[in-house]
Automatic annotation (TrEMBL):
<feature type="transmembrane region" description="Helical">
    <location>
        <begin position="127"/>
        <end position="146"/>
    </location>
</feature>
<feature type="transmembrane region" description="Helical">
    <location>
        <begin position="76"/>
        <end position="94"/>
    </location>
</feature>
<keyword id="KW-0472">Membrane</keyword>
<dbReference type="Pfam" id="PF07331">
    <property type="entry name" value="TctB"/>
</dbReference>
<protein>
    <recommendedName>
        <fullName>DUF1468 domain-containing protein</fullName>
    </recommendedName>
</protein>
<feature type="transmembrane region" description="Helical">
    <location>
        <begin position="100"/>
        <end position="118"/>
    </location>
</feature>
<feature type="transmembrane region" description="Helical">
    <location>
        <begin position="41"/>
        <end position="64"/>
    </location>
</feature>
<keyword id="KW-0812">Transmembrane</keyword>
<feature type="domain" description="DUF1468">
    <location>
        <begin position="10"/>
        <end position="154"/>
    </location>
</feature>
<keyword id="KW-1133">Transmembrane helix</keyword>
<dbReference type="InterPro" id="IPR009936">
    <property type="entry name" value="DUF1468"/>
</dbReference>
Length: 155
């Protein structure tokens, strides 16, 4: 698969997600908060607009680019498809895994990390321990940011 094709697919997918995010953020703009100067939809709307702006710039760069080399070696195609499948499954199952969100997030981070970094013949147990620790720390950071700092429960 060529770089241009991969970039176009990813950018169009991000654009669809950005439009969905922006439409969702606009719903928060309608919520009237009399005590605050900024309402809940202010920053999400700005983020959605900036995302769409960056996507438009990247689309232009991709379309005007002269080079079109191979995106990744054929040997990595299986890994790319597996990561895309894991990510799609995680996002589609989000509402079903909500009570165990943090556990499934750790498992998702671990699975994706193993797929991306593990090489044939490499010892499995040390890799699982190391990447498992990273997955737990990343999920802990998500918990600290959303649940503790902002008071937004993801479960």
């Amino acid at each position: 698969m060529k770089v241009r094709s991969v970039e176009l697919i990813v950018l169009l997918g991000l654009a669809a997600a950005g439009v969905w995010y922006l439409v969702s953020a606009v719903d928060f703009l309608e919520a009237e908060e009399q005590d605050y100067f900024l309402n809940p939809g202010f920053f999400p709307t700005i983020l959605g607009c900036v995302l769409l702006l960056f996507i438009a710039v990247s689309l232009l760069q991709t379309l005007l680019s002269k080079t079109n080399r191979e995106a990744f070696p054929e040997s990595n195609t299986r890994r790319v498809i597996l990561v895309i499948g894991l990510t799609a499954a995680y996002l589609l199952l989000w509402s079903m895994i909500e009570p165990l969100f943090y556990l499934f997030t750790v498992l998702f981070f671990l699975a994706v990390s193993l797929v991306l970094t593990l090489k044939r013949g490499a010892p499995l147990l040390p890799a699982i321990a190391r990447l498992g620790l990273v997955a737990v720390l990343l999920t802990g950071l998500v918990y600290l940011i959303f649940d503790v700092t902002f008071g937004i429960s993801l479960t």
